[in-house]
């Protein structure tokens, strides 16, 4: 009987500390020291939330930069079904998918003068990657400039401004958050439009 009572007391104590007190403490500290991240890294436009800087979005409009393909279940960038395609290199389906993606990218970006960057062809392990490489953004730049009727140099300048460097050079390549870049693109377009009217 003593053993059962001790076990129940330990269960209650551990539940209180590890299941309630510790999570509340970590959440509270996160809200104090990292409020933006603790609240989902939400990005806004005209005072309304348009997405999170941590989760990619399914963009098909030619006026915007497109992110990496997503292979999440049910719909692209479904945060509730995160995961990759898990297709092996030897799987013929992977070759078929890559061929279809490359044909679609060439059709969408007829003025692109460089090879298709690999991150525009392949999905990430999570299927939620919000970032693309600088090469992937530059590949799409002529399409953006043409569809928005703005100078290509202005688009390239936005890409350069929104390039995020790795904390240390050996920790990764420079990347660009697609949603942040698209929001900056809209802002730039609004400034141009307001100057011409």
UniProtKB/TrEMBL annotation:
A Pfam family: KdpC
Keyword Nucleotide-binding appears in the UniProt entry: yes
Membrane topology annotation: Single-pass membrane protein
Subcellular location(s) of the protein: Cell membrane
Keywords, sorted A to Z: ATP-binding, Cell membrane, Ion transport, Membrane, Nucleotide-binding, Potassium, Potassium transport, Transmembrane, Transmembrane helix, Transport
Chief location bin: membrane
InterPro entries linked to this entry: KdpC (IPR003820)
Subunit structure: The system is composed of three essential subunits: KdpA, KdpB and KdpC.
Function: Part of the high-affinity ATP-driven potassium transport (or Kdp) system, which catalyzes the hydrolysis of ATP coupled with the electrogenic transport of potassium into the cytoplasm. This subunit acts as a catalytic chaperone that increases the ATP-binding affinity of the ATP-hydrolyzing subunit KdpB by the formation of a transient KdpB/KdpC/ATP ternary complex.
Family the UniProt entry places it in: Belongs to the KdpC family.
UniProt-recorded name of the protein: Potassium-transporting ATPase KdpC subunit
Source species of the chain: Providencia huaxiensis
Lineage per the UniProt record: Bacteria, Pseudomonadati, Pseudomonadota, Gammaproteobacteria, Enterobacterales
Gene of this entry: kdpC
């Amino acid at each position: 009987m003593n053993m059962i009572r001790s076990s129940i007391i330990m269960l209650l104590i551990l539940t209180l500390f590890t299941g309630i007190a510790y999570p509340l403490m970590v959440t509270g500290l996160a809200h104090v020291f990292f409020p933006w991240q603790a609240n989902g890294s939400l990005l806004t436009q005209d005072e309304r939330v348009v997405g999170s800087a941590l989760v990619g979005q399914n963009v098909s409009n030619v006026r915007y930069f497109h992110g990496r393909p997503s292979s999440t279940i049910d719909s692209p960038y479904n945060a509730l079904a995160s995961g990759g395609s898990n297709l092996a290199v030897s799987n013929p389906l992977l070759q078929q998918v890559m061929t279809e993606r490359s044909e679609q990218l060439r059709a969408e970006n007829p003025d692109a003068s460089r090879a298709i960057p690999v991150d525009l062809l392949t999905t990430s392990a999570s299927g939620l990657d919000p970032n693309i490489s600088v090469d992937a953004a530059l590949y799409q730049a002529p399409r953006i400039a043409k569809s928005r009727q703005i100078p290509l140099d202005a688009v390239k300048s936005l890409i350069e401004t929104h390039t995020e460097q790795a904390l240390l050079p050996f920790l990764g390549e420079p990347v660009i958050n697609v949603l942040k870049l698209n929001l900056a693109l809209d802002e730039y377009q609004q400034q141009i439009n307001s100057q011409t009217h």
